[in-house]
Design a protein that fits this description.
By secondary structure, the chain is an alpha+beta fold. The protein is built from seven helices and 22 strands. Helices cover 16% and strands 30% of the residues. 37% of the residues are buried. It binds zinc ion (ZN). The site of zinc ion has 10 residues, from helix 7.
């Protein structure tokens, strides 16, 4: 049934779209389920039907451009990459023959046109290299119909002329994948341009990676700046090329605005994201997915275990990239960290009684220095009720130790311990704080020795109880008051 229902909308979708655009979807790489990943989708424009393999090759090159950045490669497994081959009637892009801005605005120059799936054209806003689709929202809506979990939308235009643009959908010509990495810094992470070319009237706003403040004490990325780095930081001294500082020139202002590094992907397509931008990327990734991928069993229920035996608790933690183990686990029992226990499966032993066991999962990467919202940390907490091995379970090797006097030991939510000097029938009754009888377990035949008696059902709730045990042979009784926690 499930398979049929899943198939039905897919068939409808292809039917509805086949008149507009035929499509073929493929996976470039997928490390986690879509709900547990950031899903990057490449969409074709200006590729005709026989060009499927060209698009697949171009999409792989675009994926590799993301992976070439040092921050994004350190978090490579957070990303899934998909291609959607939407077929165009004609190859290329509109205004592909235009080579400068003046020509864009010149009505006497005939611009070539290409009838493509998404209408990509150069010369948008009369800027020659501004290459963009007709409607970004049409692309987004279409992609969401195919991959509802899409996070990053990228159109690859089948042209070798340099051009691209950003916004809700990033666009680049097929030989310029570096453009969309920068554009995704805007659209997905909210980073600002670190360009210092003056653009009078540009509405520059303080962002993660730019500011109009040049005071060390108050610059918002100052926890990345070494004491030995002067602020503002000289741009003409190569000693400061690779450190974080406060460099003048950012946000389309040559003066009065500052950036964290001499060069960064938000300034130049040949640079990597700087530490400030890289930290923002990682925080954004953890804003969507947890460092804790899964846990077992479901912490909603009570986990039952037996003293002296292993407790079956485990988590699966995120692996940011191949050979990257920055996500670590700490195990805490009743508020105390267990030293030396760090595996994904709990390896400690618990004494009889109720325990709170917590798995604390944390990405310890040095690429994030400030995580104000605790995004890099998550945890699972279980209530574990550990009982002593019961008389029935105890084999010959665990024969109860002999005791001299009838007695009631520890009373917990799970059961009670009894000292039974002579085998035979015993009755166990329970009374509440007001003296009313709240339970009668009836007569049980106990063997001699230390016993553990498990309460039936879900056990006791917290509170004051009185336990009375009566021996059938001589009507000897023993009582104990206890506080069940
Ligand atoms: Zn930067």
């Amino acid at each position: 049934m499930k398979g049929i229902r899943a198939l039905f909308p897919a068939l409808l979708l292809v039917g509805a779209l086949s008149s507009a655009v035929a499509q073929q979807t493929f996976v470039l790489s997928e490390h986690y389920p879509r709900s547990q990943a950031v899903n990057v989708v490449f969409v074709a424009d200006g590729y005709t039907e026989p060009m499927f393999e060209n698009f697949r090759t171009d999409a792989a090159a675009f994926r590799d451009a993301f992976l070439a950045d040092s921050t994004l490669s350190a978090y490579a497994n957070f990303f899934n990459y998909y291609g959607i081959f939407t077929v165009s009637a004609e190859a290329g892009a509109t205004a592909e023959n235009i080579t400068n801005d003046a020509q864009c605005a010149d009505p006497s120059i005939v611009k070539t046109t290409s009838n493509t799936a998404w209408g990509s054209s150069y010369c948008r806003s009369n800027i020659q290299r501004l290459l963009y689709v007709n409607s970004a929202s049409a692309v987004q809506n279409y992609v969401r119909g195919v991959i509802p979990e899409a996070d990053v939308f990228i159109v690859i235009v089948n042209s070798t002329r340099y051009g691209g643009g950003g916004g809700a959908v990033a666009v680049a010509n097929r030989t310029s994948p570096q453009i969309v990495v920068h554009e995704t810094g805007h659209s997905f992470v909210g980073l600002a341009d670190e360009y210092d070319t003056d653009y009078p009237g540009y509405n520059t706003v303080i962002s993660v990676n730019i500011t109009s403040n040049s005071t060390r004490e108050t610059v918002h990325w100052n926890y990345w700046i070494e004491e030995s780095t002067p602020v503002p930081t000289p741009k003409d001294n190569s000693a400061y090329r690779n450190v974080i500082g406060v460099f003048e020139g950012a946000g389309y202002h040559s003066t009065g605005w500052y950036r964290p590094k001499f060069n960064c992907r938000m300034r130049s397509n040949s640079a990597h994201f700087c530490s400030v931008c890289g930290e923002a990327w990682i925080l954004k990734l953890y804003g969507k997915v947890s460092p804790l991928v899964s846990f077992s069993p479901d912490p909603a229920g009570v986990v039952e275990a037996t003293e002296g035996e292993s407790v079956p608790l485990s988590v699966a933690v995120r692996v940011p990239a191949e050979n990257s183990r920055t996500v670590r686990v700490q195990w805490e029992v009743d508020g105390s960290i267990l030293p030396g226990v760090s595996g994904e499966t709990f390896s400690g032993f618990l004494s009889a009684g109720d325990h709170a066991v917590r798995a604390i999962v944390q990405d310890t990467t040095p690429l994030v220095r400030r995580d104000a919202n605790g995004l890099l940390r998550d945890e699972a907490v279980w209530t574990v009720v550990v009982g002593q091995g019961s008389a029935i379970d105890a084999g010959p090797a665990a024969r109860p130790a002999p005791v001299a006097e009838l007695g009631v030991g520890e009373v917990t939510r799970r059961g009670l311990r009894l000292a039974v000097p002579r085998s035979g029938l015993h009755r166990v009754e329970l009374f509440g704080a007001d003296g009313k009888r709240i339970g009668d377990l009836g007569w049980h035949d106990f063997s001699a020795g230390e016993q553990f008696l498990q309460w039936p059902g879900n056990g006791l709730s917290a509170g004051n109880v009185l336990v009375r045990v009566t021996r059938a042979a001589d009507r000897a009784t023993v009582e104990k008051r206890a506080v069940v926690e």
